[in-house]
Amino acid sequence: MPTPAERQVLIRVSVxxxxxxxxxxxxxxxGEPKLPLTIGHMIVGHVEAAGERAHRFEPGARIGVPWxxxxxxxxxxxxxxxxxxxxNARFTGYDVDGGYAEYCVADERFCFSLxxxxxxxxxxxxxxxxxxGYRALRLxxxxxxxxxxxxxxxAHIIAQxxxxxxxxxxxxxxxxxxxxxxxxxxxxAEWAGDSLTPPPEPLDAALIFAPVGALVPAALKALDxxxxxxxxxIHMSDIPSFSYDLLWMERQIRSVANLTRRxxxxxxxxxxxxxxxxEVKPYPLxxxxxxxDDLAHGRFEGAAVLTVAS
Length: 310
Ligand SMILES: [Zn+2]
Ligand SMILES: [Zn+2]
Fold this sequence. Notes:
Layout: E1 8-17, H1 20-26, E2 43-50, E3 62-65, E4 68-70, E5 90-91, E6 103-107, E7 112-113, H2 120-123, H3 129-139, E8 145-149, H4 153-164, E9 168-173, H5 178-186, E10 191-194, E11 203-208, H6 215-222, E12 223-231, E13 252-255, H7 261-270, E14 280-284, H8 288-296, E15 303-307
Parallel strand pairs: 8-9, 8-11, 9-10, 11-12, 12-13, 14-15
Antiparallel strand pairs: 1-2, 1-6, 1-15, 2-3, 3-7, 4-5
Helix pairs in contact: 3-4, 3-7
């Protein structure tokens, strides 16, 4: 049972959604996790106790804990509103223990109140799949024709938000994955097909959620002049070399790193208005390894969620 520090709350975990980042951490693809480590950064739970200076939430309040666990608020990035790039940032389930657990602690300043209309299991995927996806969507600017590469937990949420904003959605999946393509159409994609085949119209932005570097040149090929490719994952296989022609005409490639609290507040306000429905596959906490394995092999639609409290 962890003890909350000054600005932390002790949380009785109800559910924790499973992120692709968790897979990258357990398979050693990310630099320097704290060890030993409890992973998990899409936590929904109830406040059980609070540190001396933690007064933001009432005892028993339901809150959500995201990937961004702490920042210094003073570095050159924080001062420019880019706390997602903070040089001293600490991340949930990476630098501090996360939510694959019955209890965890979190800095209250980085927790969110959750929209009441969402049950715990349906709220959890909003906390990273939703938030990082939302930041990627923001970086797509006013793109009308939006390509989503990899139709998993993030894309299935962002497709709904994008449709709500009046954008046109094109979904691109692994070649032959007709199940995911069907799923994408059911959430408002006007076209769904194979990622290596260009969509019927050029795209204004392509968001890449799959950790596959080869999708970068494929997405560039699908872009209209002036368009942007946004890589939304924390890890990706190497990007193959490609002809400068693909980048020419002011096309751009960029990544998305982490989230700001503003991204979180905004998405959690929009989600119930859409309303975003999250497709979830629940697993008991003891089956966490099965959930990770099923994620690695694309065995479910939407997001896996570990259910902790009975
Ligand atoms: Zn995540
Ligand atoms: Zn900072």
